[in-house]
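User
Take a look at the entry that follows and flag anything odd:
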Amino acid sequence: MNAHQHTIDRLPLYAAGQLDEKERSELDQHLKTCASCRADLQLWLAVRSEVGSANSHVHAPDGVSERALERIHTPSPLSLAVKRTFSLLFSQAYLVRREMWPSSAILMFMGIMATLLIQKIVLVRYFAPLVAAASLAAIFGPDHDPACELTLSTPTASWKVLLARLALVHGYNLILTLAASLILLFIAPPDMLWALILSWLGPMTFLPALALLLSLWTGSGNSVAVTYGLWLLQFINPKWIPGYLSNLLTPVVEAYRQFWGSPLLLVIAGLGLLVTALWLSGRIGSRLVQSSS
C-alpha cells in the first residue's frame, strides 16, 4: 500500500476525530498539497454531519441503562434454580441423622463380605433394598429432626425439604450399591453387571419408597417392620401352604413373587409412592406448623 492510499484510508478517522495529534498533523500537511484528498475529506465531513444530525433525534428510553445493568447482574433463572437447589441440599445434609451415613456403609460392607464368602452375587439384591428402606424411613418427621418445626416454618415447602433429603440419602445408598456391584465383579464376569443392577434397581426403588410413605403415617419403626415383612413374604414356598388353602393362595403367592421380579413395574410403582409421600409431607408439614403456632 502506497503513502497516498494510506492517507485516503485514514480520512474517515480524521473526520471522526479519531486520530492522535501526530497523525492529524501529518494528514494536515498532506491535505495542503492534495486537492483529491481535500475533496474526499469534505465528503466524510458531510457524512459525519448527517450521522450526528440523525442521532440527535434519537432518544433512549428512560431508565434503559439501569435496566441493562440490572439484567446483566441478575442471574439467569436456570443458574438461580441450580444455586438454590445446591443450597437446599447442603443445608439438609446437616439435618439428616449423622449416624445414617456410616451405618448404611457398614451394613453394605457386611453384605458385600457375605456375598464374597458364599460366592453368590444375587445376595446384593436381597440386602441392598433393606438397607435403603431403613434409611428412608428415618429422614422426615419430629422423631428424626429435632428442628423439624423450625425447618417446616421456613419459606421452603416441606415437600422440597423431603425431596432434598430423599435425593441425598437415597442417592448415597444407590452409590453404595453400585460400588458393591462393581466390587462383586471380582467373582462374576463383567457382562453380568447390567443384569445385577437390574436385579436390585426395582426393589431398591419400591421398598424404600414404601418405607418412606408408611413412616409418614405410622412412624419409622412400624414402617420398617411392615416393609421388611412384605419383602420376606415373597420367599414363601407354596409347598408350605396347607392343602385346603393351596389352590386359593398359590396363584396369589406366585403373582406376588412375579411382582418383586419385575424391575420396570417396581420402578413405576415406587415413583408413584414417592410422589404420594411428597404430597403427604406437605399436608403433614402444614399441620405441624399450625399446631405449633
